[in-house]
Amino acid sequence: MNHQFDTVIIGAGPAGTSCGIALQKKNHNVCVIDKAVFPRNKTCAGLVTGKTDQLIGTIFDKAEIDGLFCCKADRIKLYRKTELLTETRVKNPAKIVNRIDFDNALVSKYKSLGGNIKEGEHHLSVDYKKSCVTLSNGDIIRYKHIVFADGALSLSHKEIGVDKRKMAFGIETYIPSDQFSTDSVDLYFDCINKGYLWVFPHGDTVCVGVANMFNKSTDYKSILTDFLHSVGVDPEKQKYTGAFLPYGYVIPQEKLPANVILVGDAGGFTDPITGEGLYMALHTGMLAAEAICSGNVKTTYLESVKPVVSIVKKGKTVQNLFFLPAVQKLFLKKVAGKEKLVSFYYDNLVDEYHYDYRRIGELLKDHRQYNKS
Ligand SMILES: Cc1cc2nc3c(=O)[nH]c(=O)nc-3n(C[C@H](O)[C@H](O)[C@H](O)COP(=O)(O)OP(=O)(O)OC[C@H]3O[C@@H](n4cnc5c(N)ncnc54)[C@H](O)[C@@H]3O)c2cc1C
């Protein structure tokens, strides 16, 4: 059977659904296709910063929003290995989502607006020349525009030849809170090269994970199990999942045909220090929808996404410096016992991009002023 849609979106994660929801709200003729059947899981610690929360507020109705979060945390703790260096209160409490529920809520929102979706499509193929997608049952969907929102290992990357070594890799596990618990956002440095370990509260469980710039020789699981041992949790009883995530490499999507757009992880859009990807996924998904409605699609999208590209690229330079062993050592020395310093950076560079990596010089200067005040 043949179908025709103006826009086909591959992937129904946050990037794909934010794009689909925005298009559906404008009565655009759109179809979302995902290999999974929802609800499905996604390896992700689920931390929602203030800037992400604001975007969530534009997607959902007020009454739907509170139910999206499994908990909130108004304090951050920084550790060197297991030694607590500093603990501080932040301006906006960080919120946490469970990705099974959050992504399902996004898909349900899209469906409630009348959006077309095809789930469980494991074996789709895309013919860029003919602008069509062939589904596993042989059905053909023709499109004017195609948006790849299919995550860090996007199908579209085959066309460009993307190297996994330019990404990060992370694994995580969920521990019942009666065995190990926290009510703050806890970051552990000096546990892994070019990355960090985290412990986030998740309601009845805590999420413990570790990620870094992908390195084949890193034994991610043993880093995590060593940590679990150190806090008295039996690692044998745990389930672990892992996934790639972009980490400072923007996919050169100009190389793809003019009617192809990449959003979210598929485009290489995450914060290159924290690995936070939900903000850029929702943001670029929405930018893609605006561009599609504007007419001059690819040019408009590439123009509107420039600030995001710039944050990722400048952030990559900061990442290269930040993870140098000497700089890490200095950073951990500087933050020890400095609550004001940590909350200043969290509030201005993580929770919001008041200063993003493009303005890191100004941030350092203003911090010195702030510290004197
Ligand atoms: C260990 C880890 C921890 C993280 N923690 C955080 C965090 O705390 N906060 C934060 O903001 N970000 C975090 N991230 C990053 C965040 O998870 C991603 O940036 C975010 O999920 C990107 O959304 P997306 O919609 O682009 O892609 P995804 O969420 O990956 O969604 C892609 C969708 O495409 C579908 N798909 C994939 N391939 C195909 C195919 N061939 N055909 C059809 N469908 C396909 C998938 O089933 C999926 O539904 C973390 C990532 C990792 C790996």
Features:
D-Amino Acid Oxidase, Chain A, domain 2; alpha/beta; 7-stranded mixed beta sheet; FAD/NAD(P)-binding domain; single chain; binds flavin-adenine dinucleotide
Distance between the termini: 69 Å
CATH homologous superfamily grouping of the largest domain: FAD/NAD(P)-binding domain
**CATH topology description of the largest domain:** FAD/NAD(P)-binding domain
Rounded radius of gyration (Å): 21 Å
Largest sheet data: 8 strands, mixed
Name of the CATH class of the largest domain: Alpha Beta
| Number of H/I helices | 12
> What are the distinct ligands in this entry?
flavin-adenine dinucleotide
The CATH architecture assignment of the largest domain turns out to be: 3-Layer(bba) Sandwich
**Topology order in helix (H) and strand (E) letters:** EHEEHHEEHEEEEHEEEEHEEHHHHHH
Which structural class best describes the helix and strand composition?
alpha/beta
What percentage of residues falls in helices of 4 or more residues?
A: 25-40%
Strand content: 25-35%
User: In one word, what is the shape?
Assistant: globular
Unreliable parts: none
Cross-sheet strand order for the largest sheet: 3-5-4-11-12-13-10-14
Total strand segments: 15
Report on this structure.
The chain is an alpha/beta fold and 373 residues long. It folds into 3 domains: 208 residues, 3-Layer(bba) Sandwich (FAD/NAD(P)-binding domain), CATH 3.50.50.60; 83 residues, D-Amino Acid Oxidase, Chain A, domain 2, CATH 3.30.9.10; 48 residues, no CATH class. It is 36% helix and 27% strand. The chain has 12 helices and 15 strands. An 8-stranded mixed β-sheet has the order 3-5-4-11-12-13-10-14, sandwiched between helices. Strands 1, 2, 6, 7, 8, 9 and 15 form a 7-stranded mixed β-sheet that branches. Strand 7 and strand 8 form a beta hairpin. The chain is globular, with a radius of gyration of 21 Å. The N and C termini lie far apart (69 Å). The site of flavin-adenine dinucleotide has 38 residues, from helix 1, strand 10, strand 13, strand 14 and helix 7. The site of flavin-adenine dinucleotide (FAD) has 38 residues, from helix 1, strand 10, strand 13, strand 14 and helix 7.
